[in-house]
Amino acid sequence: MKVTPAQIIVRGLTVRCPNCGGRTLFPPGVSLRLNKECSQCGLRLEKDEGFFLGAMSLNYGVTLVVFLTPVALLWYFGRLGDAAAAWLAVGLSVVVPVLLYRASRSWQLLLYYTLFPHHLPANRRELSGREDENV
Question: Is 0.70 surpassed by the pTM of this model?
Answer without folding.
Answer: yes
